[in-house]
Design a protein that fits this description.
Elements: H1 3-10, E1 14-18, E2 28-31, E3 37-38, E4 42-46, H2 48-55, E5 59-60, E6 65-68, H3 73-76, E7 87-91, H4 95-107, H5 113-121, H6 128-136, E8 143-151, H7 159-168, E9 173-176, E10 181-187, H8 200-207, E11 209-217, H9 223-239, E12 246-248, H10 249-269, H11 280-292, H12 296-305, H13 310-317, H14 321-334, H15 342-360
Length: 371
């Protein structure tokens, strides 16, 4: 176990006197008792009196550690620094209290994953290697993917969901909590599409639950950020009136970015009318739709999503191909824009998303006349 994890478990009762920034792996704890050699992988526990008597004689191996009980820092400075191990700690607790606590920690078969996960989310553990050690028992590099299961209405989870998730992800780290279940999946290589258990979507639909699916990262220090993004995505899903049960982070990335931008826009301008961020052609089409009961904006959006593919646009909208062509012709007559211009189409697509956000999240009427 990393010495930093031991110090963290002791909390304010212990501190590093020297070292602490490096990595020292501890397998066992021993009391100071006439040792001539302080061995690698051992945490030696004693008091100042014993340390003074032995420090002149002992030899310290690289990778050992010393913990001095009931030791004020001012008195430790009297020990010869060249004789102290690279990692030396001091504590206000007694030797028996420290020995029992550290022994129990080293003998524990595995740290509680929920406790470790809460340490990550509270930023009490931030380094990638330390997070991997706590969550997986190893610092071996791997691509880690986070999934979050929640109730669609953000209420308490049904009891049967936790057991079902453990069956679906029997080889992964499953961390159940009252209102959320986190699953940490480790992949040997970077993946851009992730296999999911058969029947999971249908089961979640029956239970009234949803899952947010993040991308994989090798930096476990970013798992908290990924968790925040997935939670953000699931809140946006509800505010945007989306119906997906399987929510992939890359499908919501533009809306997440837009949500951050809107917060800045509102703070800078003192109002929420974000229609000024959209291309005026989209606002003009929205007004036309409202006045005549048409769906030209929806047709244009799907046409842009499918990269100008009329056949796929028609299939998505359950329309005949000729109907889509006629609507696109009407759009071209209203707003004479070159839809073969890729950069223009990108701006129009973003404008469609801006207007969707304005309507569904901010509850604005985008078709109103503006002075």
């Amino acid at each position: 176990m990393d010495i930093k994890l031991i110090r963290e478990d002791l909390g304010g009762a212990a501190a590093f006197y020297r070292g602490g920034s490096g990595h020292v792996e501890v397998q066992k704890v021993r009391l100071l008792d006439r040792q001539r050699v302080l061995e690698q992988g051992v945490l030696y526990l004693g008091d100042l009196t014993k340390a003074r008597a032995l420090s002149q004689e002992w030899r310290t191996e690289k990778g050992c550690a010393l913990l001095l009980a009931e030791a004020p820092e001012a008195q430790v400075s009297a020990l010869p620094p060249e004789k102290l191990p690279e990692v030396t700690m001091i504590s206000r607790l007694s030797i028996p209290a420290l020995f029992n606590r550290i022994s129990a920690l080293l003998e524990a078969p595995q740290a509680d994953p929920l406790h470790a996960w809460k340490l990550v989310l509270s930023r009490r553990v931030v380094s990638s290697g330390e997070i991997c050690q706590r969550l997986f028992g190893t610092e071996e590099a791997a691509y880690v993917q986070l999934l979050l299961f929640q109730k669609k209405d953000h209420g308490p989870l049904p009891q049967e969901l936790a057991e079902q998730v453990k069956l679906w992800f029997s080889e992964d780290t499953v961390i159940p909590d009252e209102e959320e279940i986190a699953v940490l999946r480790r992949h040997r290589e970077q993946l851009f599409t992730f296999p999911l258990p058969e029947g999971m979507e249908e089961s979640l639909e029956t239970l009234g639950c949803v899952v947010g699916i993040g991308n994989a990262t090798r930096d476990c220090g970013m798992l908290r950020t990924m968790c925040q993004m997935i939670r953000h995505m699931l809140r946006l899903r509800q505010r945007l009136d989306r119906e997906e049960t399987l929510c992939f982070i890359d499908q919501y990335q533009m809306m997440i970015v837009l949500d951050y931008c809107v917060q800045e826009y509102v703070q800078r301008n003192g109002h929420t009318d974000i229609c000024y961020l959209a291309h005026p052609a989209l606002v003009h089409i929205a007004r036309y739709d409202a006045q005549r009961g048409t769906n030209l904006r929806q047709v244009l959006y799907q046409y842009l999503v499918f990269g100008g593919n009329v056949q796929r646009t028609a299939a998505e909208l359950y329309m005949h191909r000729n109907t889509v062509m006629n609507k696109l012709k009407k759009i071209s007559e209203m707003v004479p824009l070159d839809l073969s211009d890729g950069l223009l189409c990108q701006r129009l697509l973003l404008s469609c998303q801006v207007l969707e956000y304005a309507e569904k999240v901010l509850k604005l009427r985008v078709d109103q006349e503006r002075e």
